[in-house]
């Protein structure tokens, strides 16, 4: 009886696990317990009830998380998750969250990004400011650092491998390149237009000069000038004159 119960419990435990590929949270399958392959992404402002329902059973994330462009002040959707890892990059990425101040990972026991890279990255994120100015934000940061240090068996406190704050001016290079291309296109358009106008002008001027030269030749010939006998054109006849003799005149 006891053995049967254990087998049933083991079966229920195994059958209750569901591994899902990471994606944006609104597209995630229901009842996932483990996330792998791709990061679990929280992007933009989603319905809170929907998000909590989607992630409520997750306890292990093997491919990292990304929190991008939200209005959240406190991120606590994953406070029940026990392990967050990522062998391909940072375990956590927070990017362009304009109000973020608190990071609540109450149950987290393991935080581990790619070896010799960063465990947690903040990119143009408000938390980077809050971390320096507010005690609660600093405490959240230190708790995550301690978890990561134990996960990697590091001795150094706040190792450079734990975190990174990036303040990038995104797309500045691409914007500059686009502006340059537009300027070049405008210049070429102007040059092409000028060359076309110049060619048309020269063509018209040349034609006018030729017409003027022809008219001058015609007007220089005096009226009534005899150009000599003209040879009839081929295939034409000229009228013949009748020659009268003296004899004909007396008759």
Automatic annotation (TrEMBL):
TM segments? Answer: 178-200
Occurrences of domain Receptor L-domain (ranges): 32-124
Task: Give the span(s) annotated as Disordered.
Answer: 220-251
Where do Low complexity bias regions lie? 228-242
The keyword Transferase is annotated on this UniProt entry = no
The entry's keywords:
Membrane, Signal, Transmembrane, Transmembrane helix
Statement: the UniProt record of this protein carries the keyword DNA-binding: no
Where does the UniProt annotation place the signal sequence? 1-16
Superkingdom, taxonomy of origin: Eukaryota
Q: What is this protein called?
A: Receptor L-domain domain-containing protein
**Native organism:** Caenorhabditis remanei (Caenorhabditis vulgaris)
């Amino acid at each position: 009886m006891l053995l049967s119960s254990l087998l049933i419990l083991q079966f229920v435990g195994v059958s209750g696990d569901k591994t899902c590929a990471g994606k944006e949270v609104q597209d995630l399958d229901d009842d996932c317990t483990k996330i792998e392959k791709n990061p679990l992404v929280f992007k933009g402002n989603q319905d809170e009830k929907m998000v909590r329902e989607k992630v409520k059973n997750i306890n292990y994330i093997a491919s990292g998380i990304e929190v991008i462009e939200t209005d959240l002040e406190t991120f606590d959707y994953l406070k029940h998750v026990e392990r967050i890892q990522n062998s391909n990059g940072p375990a956590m990425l927070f990017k362009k969250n304009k109000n973020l101040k608190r990071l609540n990972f109450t149950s987290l026991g393991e935080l581990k990004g790619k070896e010799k890279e960063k465990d947690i990255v903040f990119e143009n994120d408000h938390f980077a400011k809050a971390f320096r100015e507010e005690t609660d934000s600093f405490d959240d940061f230190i708790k995550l650092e301690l978890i990561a240090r134990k996960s990697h068996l590091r001795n150094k406190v706040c190792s450079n491998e734990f975190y990174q704050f990036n303040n990038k001016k995104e797309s500045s290079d691409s914007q500059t390149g686009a502006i340059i291309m537009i300027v070049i296109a405008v210049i070429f358009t102007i040059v092409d237009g000028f060359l076309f106008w110049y060619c048309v002008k020269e063509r018209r001027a040349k034609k006018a000069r030729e017409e003027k030269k022809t008219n001058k030749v015609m007007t220089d010939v005096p009226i009534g000038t005899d150009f000599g006998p003209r040879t009839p054109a081929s295939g034409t006849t000229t009228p013949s004159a009748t020659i009268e003799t003296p004899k004909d005149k007396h008759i």
